[in-house]
Task: structure prediction
Amino acid sequence: MPETESLTAIFQRLIAAFGPITLQHYMGESNARYYAGKDPLGSGGDFITAPEISQMFGELVGLWMVDIWTRAGTPGPVHYVELGPGRGTLARDALRAMKRQGLEPQVHFVEGSEALRALQREAVPQAQWHDDLATLPDDAPILLVANEFLDALPVRQLVRTPQGWRERMVDWQAAGADGKARFLPVAGDKPMDAALPEHLKDSPEQTLVETCPGAATVTDEIARRLAGQGGAALLIDYGYAEPRTGSTLQALKDHAKVDPFALPGEADLTCLVDFAAMAQVALAGGARHLGTVTQGAFLRALGIDMRAAQLAAVAPQQSSAILGARDRLVDEEQMGELFKVMGLAAPAWPDGAGFR
Ligand code: SAH
Result:
């Protein structure tokens, strides 16, 4: 088999021929390459996510779905939909909890990576796979969850320069001050003032505005499906609930932050999710916004303390590991505050547990 050309070499050639590429292009290609070839979540992986920390996370998501489905009047068959299911752990735990309550939905996974699809098939053999949301069924309500999916979608950044607003691009510098070659962010040469929302146009020089067109497109599609076919959705990610400016781009490798412009395709590139913007998109698409709360508040309201005590009582020798995992998910200085949960539903569906 011919060796795959490194993404660094591909980007270098592209930039040499056509000039700097957009940050959106750089991030999109980097992450596609990153997820295609490996399991970033396994032992020796680059980061760990909530469902991999404890089964309680997936179980509570599953129970949230059963609860809202029951209070919506148990409307016939439903589809469980998960975006970017990783190792399939969240789905496996959620579906097990749902089954105990008598709900056994059809399972649909939206996943771009073949390597991860193989792991998902081991965890949830009955799932059906989709490349994107377009091919999901539209004949019944959906119960959808996405954990750490939106943060992996590529962002666009606009910077205010002395010459006006410009798109943030990525250039290749053959030799920097230290003699080393590297990718580096630069301001594009095309005026981008028209792309800025009116209220941000007069921001001071150097202001950086980040948007995520992919996350907005996905949220819009979810909202339209909820409005059209019924159901509810949980979008869980690290992000912010109030509008802000500045770059949130970061790269993770071996559980540490690294330079996002070093080694494209070999580190996970992520950005914080702008939940206020996503709520606006969802409302415009016709969905109900049930609320956006911190992960800590959400899991506590759903009874994580009780579930942890229950599990610890059954397995006393693991009690400190179970309570430690609980703390990791809900404590403010760990994942509890930075991670947010946004709930959406069809207009006729009831409120969701944990949002008031
Ligand atoms: N939800 C899992 C995994 C999070 S990692 C967990 O919580 O553990 C991000 C997931 O989204 C991976 O499964 C990755 O392959 C998938 N993904 C990222 N970008 C994608 C895209 N553009 N299309 C489809 N899947 C994508």
